[in-house]
Design brief:
transmembrane; LytR/CpsA/Psr_CW_biosynth; transmembrane helix; globular; membrane; LytR_CpsA_psr
């Protein structure tokens, strides 16, 4: 194998591993490496590991015998706001299900809205992000399995600081914001900067900017605009898509720097060998549709008040989820999901006759994770200074 070909293959494997980190932070890539293992061995040793005991995984009985899930690998990806650096217990501001279809060689991502009212375990019905805060990855994975009829056994958790490091190492991301997003982005930058230790410049208004890590992470966290959490998860997936595209063009030196800086901020159930094996099978996979859960929902809470996002109903939403991910058009929710769904109806009064919202941001990307030829488009200037592009220039699409 020629030296140049070897470099291209190594670059591809590094890129796939970095996507595992990116995916857990906001969304999306569960794609790993192959021959990069030897060079990355030291970096991989920096990843924190916690394997969920088998007895704590809790897969619903009907799911264990569901043949439709054969050929799929489902993972949980958590983006954490740790503040104190503890990846075992924190609010999971990002919760993503990555479903890998090995037959179609495609990965679908589903963002579970952090405010979704679910059974988080021990008889407690709260917002979904409280599961990780109260019981770490074990409780969060158990929540996803029991509430959504899934068979997740593995997860990746990453602190938001890791995302900012990746973005800075890649020279920033070009993102378009409107006036409302600009105001909230600047506000979030204060908190994000304090948490990550990064610098930023305030944006002057609507426009297209080359954002650094603090700015792009703040953009992904905006929720107080039209669309609320639904629009926020779309922004998260947008950032993921742009990271994927930028990482494809990064050189080996940049990619090595990223993994060494980011891996200490990663917690996963995977062993090094498992990461390599999974990456081997994912080299040619593409990123398919992405969506948010629940599909039908209403803002409220126990007794009809509050700011929880109520699935209307959980049972019907889970059946739609299985049609979306696994093409099970006639899927019937498990007894456990029906039990939880009935309790949510009792708590909130929101049943199948409730006038629910279908507000969701589903996108089709078709992004190939395999390395592509470098684009002829001129590379944007890297650095920490924000670049305001003229309105007359072609804007980058906001859809991932």
């Amino acid at each position: 194998m020629g030296e140049e070909q070897h470099k291209k293959k190594s670059r591809k494997k590094i890129f796939l591993l970095i996507l595992a980190v990116i995916a857990a932070v906001i969304g999306a890539g569960v794609y790993r490496l192959y021959r990069f293992y030897h060079q990355a061995n030291e970096a991989l040793d920096q990843i924190q590991r916690y394997e969920i005991p088998k007895e704590e995984v809790k897969i619903n009985q009907e799911v264990e015998t569901n043949e439709a899930l054969q050929g799929y690998t489902n993972l949980a990806l958590f983006g954490l706001d740790t503040r104190e650096g503890d990846l075992n217990q924190a609010n999971s501001d990002t919760i993503i299900i990555a479903s890998i279809n090995h037959d179609k060689k495609e990965v679908k991502l589903v963002s579970v809205y952090r405010d979704t009212y679910l059974d988080i375990g021990e008889g407690l019905y709260r917002k979904a992000n409280a599961a990780y805060a109260n019981g770490g990855p074990s409780r969060a994975v158990k929540m996803l399995n029991e509430n959504l009829d899934l068979d997740i056994e593995d997860y990746i958790s990453v602190d938001f600081g890791a995302l900012a490091d990746v973005i800075d190492a890649l020279g920033g991301l070009t993102i378009t914001v409107d006036d409302a997003e600009c105001v909230h982005l600047n506000n979030y930058c204060v908190e994000t900067s304090e948490a990550t230790g990064g610098d930023y410049e305030e944006l002057p208004g609507a426009g297209t900017y080359l954002m650094n890590g603090v700015q792009a992470v703040s953009y992904a966290r905006i929720r107080y605009t039209a669309g609320n959490d639904f629009k926020r998860t779309e922004r998260q997936r947008e950032v993921i898509a742009k990271l994927i595209e930028k990482a494809k063009k990064a050189d080996l030196k940049t990619l090595y720097r990223i993994v060494n800086a980011v891996f200490p901020e990663v917690l996963t159930s995977f062993e090094k060998k498992e990461l390599v094996e999974l990456g081997t099978s994912l080299i040619t996979y593409s990123l398919g549709e992405t969506a948010g859960f629940p599909f039908s929902h209403k803002t409220g809470g126990k007794g009809g008040s509050g700011d929880d996002e109520i699935p209307v109903t959980l049972e019907s939403n889970v059946e739609e989820l299985h049609a979306y991910l696994f093409e099970e058009e006639d899927y019937q929710a498990s007894a456990k999901v029906k039990e939880i769904s009935a309790q949510i109806v009792e708590d909130t009064g929101y049943d199948e006759d409730t006038d629910a919202s279908r507000e969701n941001f589903t996108t089709q990307t078709g992004e190939d994770f395999e390395e592509t030829e470098a684009s002829s488009e001129k590379e944007m200037e890297s650095g920490t200074k924000t670049e305001l592009k003229a309105e007359s220039e072609t804007e980058i699409s906001s859809e991932p």
